[in-house]
Amino acid sequence: MYSMFTVKNIRELTCLLAQICTLSLSMAEDQDFMEDFLKREYSLVTPYRGLGLSSSSLWDLKGTAIVTVDHVRLTADQPGRQGAVWSRIPLLLRDWEFKVHFKIHGQSKKKMNGDGLAIWLTKERMQEGPVFGSRNEFTGLGVFVDTYPNTGNYDRVFPYVSVMLGNGTLSYDHNKDGHPTELGGCSTKARNARQDTFLLIKYTKNRLTVMIDADGKQIWKNCVDIPGLRLPKGYYLGASSATGELSDNHDIISMKLYELTVKRGPEEELLIPRLDHGMGPFQVEIEEERMSGVQLFFTLLFTILGLGVLAVVGLIVYGRWKQNKRKRFY
After folding, report:
1. Backbone angles phi, psi at 2, to 5 degrees
2. Phi, then psi, of 194 in degrees rounded to 5
3. 163-187, pLDDT tens digit by residue?
4. Rounded-to-integer distance, Cα 24 and Cα 321, Å
5. 3-class DSSP assignment, residue 257
6. What residues pair up with 235 in beta bridges, in sequence order?
7. Parallel, antiparallel, or unpaired: how do β-strands 184-187 and 66-67 relate?
8. What would the DSSP string read from start to end of 164-190?
9. CA angle, corner 97, sides to 138 and 148, nearest 5?
10. What is the DSSP code string of 219-246?
11. What is the pLDDT of residues 83-105, one digit of tens each?
12. Distances (CA, A) of 143 to 12, 211, 223, 287, 317
């Protein structure tokens, strides 16, 4: 009986070891599978050879951006700087995952820094402007890491990550930190962190999700989840930054794009981005500014006066019409 028990245990142990070996092999194959789908033509990794310097380069530099051994510095910790890095190849994938490794750091005091950086997937590229160093009224997707609060009219902790979808006419309002056109966002400790910060942007089956890892531990915090968001193919990846009177170092360490294998049916080709739950080709709900008490008083006053004037005019016209009608009988 003892020998049978031992044999039974040995068999169970053997099966368990076999399952562990199979699981380990499967995990290794999955890891290799992900590595195989790293799209290097859309990725910016060290060493940054020939970046923006030759016709064979995959990325272009703009403005004050410079290349070092271990990072691309978009802007240095100096006021009045604008810098960007843009992919030369348009993104033609339907489903993808974009992992951005960046660092924002500087010598200024807490809450006295600026302005932040942006990650782009847009129709336009290499165009300077007021939105974190890139153009306003863009067409495509913008993910913003804003480090300086320009207004305090709502409850928001900075640094703050937000998402905006542009159709070429919507304008990002920097004075309101992009709040009127924001599709979602979250707060994160992305400045002067002890570890580097990671931003993960995932787009699959017309769903956009954004996650943050501010501790460098590969523990992702959910930030934004937007279903029904449709992006056209053929847009360009990029990153930009700007400093005003306040400044920081804005460094891109790497940007890696992975292709995701997802079963899809045929879909219509889009010319501009769209939200399924929006109206028209694309529309976001813009928060209306509330009128103050004085504005409301004068609005009501002028409305009443206007109605009074209309009533007087109406009485005068009616009186003349009645008078003319009486004359016809003489």
Report:
1. -60, -40
2. -65, -35
3. 999 999 999 998 899 999 999 999 9
4. 97
5. strand
6. 91
7. unpaired
8. EEEESS----GGGTTGGG--EEEE---
9. 50
10. -PEEEEEEESEE--SSBEEEEEEE-SSS
11. 999 999 999 999 999 999 999 99
12. 52, 11, 11, 20, 61
Coil/strand/helix, residue 330: coil
In the block, tokens 């920097």 appear at 174
Cβ neighbours of residue 64 closer than 8 Å, sequence gap 6 or more? 74, 75, 76, 81, 82, 83
Give the C-alpha separation, 38 to 71, whole Å: 20
Query: How does strand 229-230 pair with strand 236-242?
Result: unpaired
- CA-to-CA distance for 37 and 39, rounded, in angstroms? 6
pLDDT for the residue 248: 93
Peptide bond into 115 cis (omega under 30): yes
Q: Identify the CA nearest to 123 among candidates 139, 100, 144.
A: 139
Q: How far is CA 208 from CA 104, 205, 227, 233, 247, in A?
A: 24, 9, 6, 15, 30
For residue 15, what pLDDT is reported? 46
Closest Cα partner for 173 from 131, 145, 119? 131
* Residues of the chain predicted below pLDDT 50: 1-10, 12-36, 279-292, 327-330
User: What are the backbone dihedrals phi and psi of residue 269, each rounded to the nearest 5 degrees, phi first?
Assistant: -85, 125
173 contacts 180 by C-beta, under 8 angstroms: yes
Contacts of 139 (CB under 8 A, 6+ apart): 122, 123, 124, 166, 167, 168, 235, 272, 273
Reading the block at residue 4, the tokens are 């049978």
The count of residues in the chain is 330
Task: From 119, 133, 42, 121, select the one nearest 88 (Cα to Cα).
Answer: 42
- Nearest by Cα to 232 from 154, 287, 166, 186: 166
Place of tokens 């609060």: 149
Q: Find where tokens 């990002």 sit.
A: 172
Q: Are residues 171 and 136 in contact, defined by beta-carbon separation less than 8 angstroms?
A: yes
